[in-house]
Write a structure and sequence with these properties.
The protein is an alpha/beta fold. The protein has helices spanning 14-27, 76-79, 125-128; strands at residues 2-3, 11-12, 31-39, 43-51, 58-64, 67-72, 83-89, 92-98, 102-105, 112-114, 130-135. The chain has one domain: Sandwich (Hypothetical Protein Aq_1857, Chain: A), CATH 2.60.300. Helix content is 16%, strand content 46%. The protein has a five-stranded mixed sheet. Strands 2-7-8-11 form a four-stranded mixed sheet. A two-stranded antiparallel ribbon has the order 9-10. The longest helix is centred in the N-terminal third of the chain and has 14 residues, at 14-27. The model is unreliable at 117-136 (pLDDT under 50).
């Protein structure tokens, strides 16, 4: 595991920081891993895991004294520059990912593609790139 001082361009809004902090406290874990898996109809899906300790190939990024994010080395090129924010609609709250590396998104918003040409799907990516959230 290595620690980076520039956070790879990853940013977390204050609302998302508060949500992540609360989830870390609830789970008793110290780290949140931001990762990807091949899934969905468009290539990749965000995965969030709560960790007690980073793995050997994790890069560690500090966003406050109590919010630390880990990213596997092989996932970093695809999440570098991503902004993590919160979206609340009615009773539902979810983390959303605004990823400058994404070239297209599926219609349901569950997956995205990187590299190549966008598929012409003309929707604001910030509205589609949602993942883990909680119902309040």
């Amino acid at each position: 595991m290595s620690e980076s001082h520039d956070n790879a361009g990853i940013t977390i809004t204050p609302a998302a920081t508060g949500h992540i902090r609360n989830q870390l406290n609830l789970t008793g874990c110290r780290y949140l891993r931001l990762g990807l898996k091949e899934s969905g109809c468009n290539g990749y899906m965000y995965m969030l895991d709560f960790l007690e300790a980073p793995e050997a190939d994790d890069l560690q990024f500090s966003f406050s004294t109590d919010v630390e994010i880990c990213v596997h080395e092989h996932d970093l090129p695809m999440v570098q520059g991503t902004q993590i924010d919160m979206l609340t609609e009615g009773l539902n709250t979810a983390l959303i990912f605004k990823n400058p590396n994404a070239t297209s998104y599926c219609g349901c918003g569950e997956s995205f593609a990187v590299g190549g040409e966008p598929d012409g799907f003309d929707v604001d990516p910030g509205d589609l790139a949602t993942d883990v959230g909680s119902k309040q």
